[in-house]
Amino acid sequence: MRLSTVILPVHRWSEGQKIWRRAEELGFHTAYTYDHLSWRSFQDEPWFGSLPTLTAAACATERLRLGTLVTSPNFRHPVTLAKELITLDDVSGGRLTLGIGAGGTGFDATALGQEAWSPRERADRLGEFLPLLDELLTNDATTREGTYYSAVEARNIPGCVQTPRVPFYVAAAGPRGLKLAAEYGQGWVTYGDPKGPADVPVAQAPGVVARQIEKLTEACGAVGRDAAELEKVLLQGSTAEKPLESVGAFVDWAGTYRELGVTELVIHWPIPDSIYATDLAVFEEIATEGLSQLG
């Protein structure tokens, strides 16, 4: 099992770079950030762009993998995104992971002036977005006409450092998203129950993830793929579970999900006076000692 963190892009780089370097020093496998234009309680607070932040983090670190949790079609287009991804993969020396999903109904959904898309519309768009992005990142030139996204002789030379392209970690809970994860993903991402994660009793939270993994396994089988090939990533912070209260609480939490088949846990870097306010000393102790205590 691997332990990663998500660092929200809320700090000016003079301070933010210290956090990304510290994440590497603590031994995290990957440091992700949210690919949003703004987010929930941070709407009226500082919030910087994810891909420039990850590019700066790539220059400030040497070993730490970097990624998005998650990019979505809400304000992205595959053609321009592909160009930015091959650049970031190059700057980082092949340390980039793209977390990607259908998006939600938050600020990103209407920031460009459109009406928020229904769940079906979001699934429709991701179903076109992801295959096109895959093609763009694995070919020198791409032409494809779609209902929502098209490319005309879109060039992506020299392509990604990682071959055949940067890994896709697909966030999905429904059948269409899970099918995309099975077809295109090198990993799968969940945060628990997508309908109301904070309302799921602690005792029931692992069962939600277990059922999702069962459905992922079925989706992989349907396309002739072994689900063991995919990393299974759990993002902490959207359930009533409190794994960051102590090292012991983390060990219990991590052990439960390791038994279910989760291979990577992602915990939020502490942000004072926010929903992610956590004791930094405890957080760092978890980072350095938590997994070793699983046995």
Structure description:
There is one protein chain. By secondary structure, the protein is α/β, with parallel strands linked by helices. Helices cover 37% and strands 16% of the residues. The strands form two sheets. Strands 1-2-3-4-7-8-9-10 form an eight-stranded parallel β-barrel, surrounded by five helices. It has a two-stranded antiparallel ribbon with strand order 5-6. Helix 3 packs across helix 4, helix 4 runs parallel beside helix 5 (175-184) and helix 5 packs across helix 6 (205-222). The longest helix has 20 residues, at 119-138. The radius of gyration is 18 Å and the shape is globular. The protein starts with a strand and ends in a 6-residue tail after the last helix. The mean pLDDT is 96.
Short description, anyone?
The chain is α/β, with parallel strands linked by helices.
